[in-house]
From TrEMBL:
Protein name per its UniProtKB record: Probable membrane transporter protein
Subcellular localization: Cell membrane
GO cellular component, one term: plasma membrane
Listed Pfam families: TauE
Keywords, sorted A to Z: Cell membrane, Membrane, Transmembrane, Transmembrane helix, Transport
Entry's transmembrane regions: 34-61, 73-95, 101-119, 131-150, 170-189, 201-222, 228-247
Signal peptide positions (record): none
Topology versus the membrane: Multi-pass membrane protein
Family recorded in the similarity comment: Belongs to the 4-toluene sulfonate uptake permease (TSUP) (TC 2.A.102) family.
Family matches, as InterPro entries: TM_pro_TauE-like (IPR002781), TSUP (IPR052017)
C-alpha cells in the first residue's frame, strides 16, 4: 500500500466517486479522476489503479442502462478498437508519459472540432452511411489507443456517439457495454506491462465504495438532465479533459 496523507486519500476517494458518476450519468467526469490519480500516484500505478475502478463502474453502468443499449452499433468499432489497443500497448513499451498525454490532449481537441462540424453537415443517407463507416474506424482506433495509454477514451468515444446523434439513454447504455468490453480487454495488456500489481489492488479495495457512491449519485443526477443539457455537458467536459492533458 502506498504511504499517503489523509488529504491524498480524500482526493482519491473523490476521484473514485467521479468514476461512478461518469459511468451512470456524465461521461467525461472521469477526467477529474485521471487528473487526481496522476497527481498523487506514479504514472503507471495511477493508470492501473484507475483501470480496476473503471471496471467496477462499468458493472454499475450496465446495470443502470441495460435496457437502452444499441449493441449492433458497437460491431463496426471492434476491429479499429483492437488495432488501437495493440498500438497503445506497443507505444507504452517505449513512450514518455508526459508528451504522450499532450498528444492525446491535442487529438481530443481535434475530435471535438470534427464532431461539431459533422453534426452541422446536411448529408444524404448514402453519404451519412459512408461517413459513419469512416468515423467508426477513426474514432475506434483513436479510442483504443487513448484508453490503453491514459484511460482517456471516454472523451473520444463520447464525441463519436454524439456525432451519431444517440439519445441520452441510448448513449449511456451503448457506451456502458463498450467500455466494459474495452476495459476488460486491457487487463492482460496492463498486467503484462506491470501496470496492475498487488499494491494497486489493495489500494482499490479502499476506493471501491467511492465508485459505488458515485454511481448512485449519477443515477440521481440523470433524472435531472434533458438531452440538450446532457450533450452540452459532455462537450464541455471533453474540452476540459483535453486541455488538462495538454497542460498537465
Amino acid at each position: 500500500m502506498p504511504d499517503l496523507s489523509p488529504l491524498a486519500w480524500a482526493a482519491l476517494l473523490v476521484a473514485a466517486m467521479a468514476v461512478g458518476v461518469s459511468k451512470t450519468a456524465l461521461p467525461g467526469v472521469n477526467t477529474l479522476a485521471i487528473a487526481i490519480f496522476a497527481a498523487i500516484l506514479p504514472a503507471r500505478a495511477s493508470t492501473g489503479a484507475l483501470l480496476v475502478l473503471l471496471i467496477v463502474g462499468d458493472a454499475f453502468a450496465i446495470w443502470t442502462h441495460r435496457k437502452h443499449a444499441r449493441l449492433k452499433a458497437l460491431l463496426p468499432l471492434i476491429p479499429p478498437v483492437a488495432i488501437g489497443l495493440v498500438a497503445g500497448w506497443v507505444f507504452l513499451l517505449f513512450a514518455d508519459d508526459t508528451w504522450t498525454r499532450k498528444v492525446i490532449g491535442a487529438i481530443l481537441l481535434l475530435v471535438v472540432g470534427v464532431t461539431l462540424w459533422r453534426r452541422r453537415l446536411a448529408a444524404d443517407a448514402e453519404q451519412s452511411q459512408k461517413a459513419g463507416i469512416v468515423a467508426a474506424g477513426a474514432y475506434g482506433s483513436l479510442g483504443g489507443f487513448t484508453t490503453m495509454v491514459a484511460n482517456a477514451a471516454g472523451p473520444v468515444m463520447s464525441m463519436y456517439f454524439l456525432a451519431a446523434r444517440f439519445p441520452m439513454r441510448a448513449f449511456l447504455g451503448t457506451t456502458a457495454w463498450f467500455f466494459a468490453g474495452i476495459n476488460l480487454a486491457k487487463l492482460p495488456f496492463s498486467i503484462s506491462l506491470g501496470i496492475i500489481q498487488v499494491p494497486t489492488l489493495l489500494l482499490d479495495v479502499f476506493l471501491v465504495p467511492g465508485v459505488v457512491a458515485g454511481a448512485f449519485l449519477g443515477r440521481y443526477l440523470l433524472g435531472k438532465l434533458n438531452q440538450l443539457t446532457f450533450e452540452r455537458i459532455v462537450i464541455v467536459l471533453t474540452v476540459v479533459g483535453a486541455l488538462y492533458l495538454l497542460i498537465a
